[in-house]
Design brief:
The protein has 71 residues and is mostly helical. The protein has one domain (5-70): 434 Repressor (Amino-terminal Domain), CATH 1.10.260. It is built from five helices and no strands. The chain has helices at 5-12, 17-24, 28-36, 43-52, 57-70. Helix 2 packs across helix 3. The longest helix is centred in the last third of the chain and has 14 residues, at 57-70. The model has no long low-confidence stretch (mean pLDDT 92).
């Protein structure tokens, strides 16, 4: 199974989905969709996720910007 960048980072940090959802302030189901790549978070949520996982928004979702700019 191939993981999204944000899911890989969550696993590297050893954090559970429920813990991350609670820290970010979203429902666990919402966090699951974000981690699977089925949903793109709002900018404030993306920033909170990046800070909690000690990385940047660009590192977690930069590939989406690159894909969009090619279209």
């Amino acid at each position: 199974m191939e993981y999204t960048v944000v899911e890989k980072r969550r696993r590297e940090c050893g954090r559970e989905k429920g813990w991350l959802a609670k820290k970010v302030g979203v429902a666990r189901g919402t966090m699951t969709l974000i981690l699977k790549g089925s949903s793109t978070p709002t900018l404030p949520v993306a920033i909170r996720i990046a800070r909690i996982l000690e990385t940047t928004v660009e590192e977690l979702w930069g590939h989406l910007v690159e894909e969009e700019s090619r279209e």
